[in-house]
Amino acid sequence: MDAEGGKRPVTIREVAERAGVSISTVSHALSGRRPISAATKARVREAAAELGYDPNPNARSLRTGRSGLVGLILRPRYAVAGTPDRAETFNRLVGSIATEMLRHKTGLIHVPDLHDPAVASVPMDGCIVAHPYGGDTALAELLGRGLPVVTVEEDPEQPDLPWAVRLDYPPVVEALLDHLYEQGARDVLLLSGTEDNAWNRRPRETYLAWCKRRTLPPRTALLSEGLTPGDVPELVQPLLSGPDRPDAIVVATSDFAPLIADAAAAQGLRVPDDLLLAALTDSEHARTSTPPITAMDLTHEALAERAVDLMLARLSGAETPDGPAFLTPELRLRESTRRGG
């Protein structure tokens, strides 16, 4: 029961459990986005009917007039972890989306948990899902409801969903790796984050392909985005000791990069003379480090502008695009990867 004594909304997860299928199968069966067998489709619809599942709780609002609100779901669980300055990347994105919506006189509502009954039926004309996970359950829920959705970055398991703006990582990551190679790096360690999204997947895929092309042995490890500043040096120091230490490190999270530089200095290693160092996001941590750290800027302002344009186009009845829109991150080369002046 909800706070007003009514029945709480049934979720797509409950329909999937009743029908004995995956959440994505329910989404595809109800939305018609992918071919599903007639028997499975019938089982899903029967389960939805038995549970009273409404795939679009906003239907009344959309029939009688739009709410004037667009939802925003920020998927990375560590997006707001730690102190505010650690969330610079996501502050840029959320702030830019809010500003763009304001420019277009459209309201924006942040949805913290789609499965929370308190927000499950929030009136939204559409929803922007930022940095979804592979096989994202929140995205599947929204698609199952038939709600207009735009994603910032793709669900890695559904890379071709057309209403999306994606970052074209491979050429930028390759350019960074080629730069490290030109600076003499032959043993490059990639420290990826642990969240299963495109930002972690695509650079890792590009790195592995680059190592194969260069006939270099790949070296990868994971650093959770939720680590505290005290955790990072303890985990990184063993990687920096001994004769097999890397001569370059590419770390996903930019606020970890200065901590790695400090850990290297504690072992007598100088950046960039003994260790080249780069990050796959840019922030004040990278820009103000000594030396400043090479980083990949995810251009969140441009992502926000394009995502809002796509959402407003979709709500106005525009034709479905042939595929996702692509933007290119910007590589900021700084002193941490430049040797010899």
TrEMBL record:
What SUPFAM superfamilies does the database record attribute to this sequence?
lambda repressor-like DNA-binding domains (SSF47413), Periplasmic binding protein-like I (SSF53822)
* An example Gene Ontology molecular-function term: transcription cis-regulatory region binding
The portions of this protein that span the membrane are none
Domain HTH cro/C1-type residue range list = 11-40
Q: Which Gene3D superfamilies match?
A: 3.40.50.2300, lambda repressor-like DNA-binding domains (1.10.260.40)
CDD domains associated with the record: HTH_LacI
Every HTH lacI-type domain range: 10-64
Which keywords label this protein?
A: DNA-binding, Transcription, Transcription regulation
What the entry lists under PROSITE patterns is as follows: HTH_CROC1, HTH_LACI_1, HTH_LACI_2
- What is this protein called in UniProt? LacI family DNA-binding transcriptional regulator
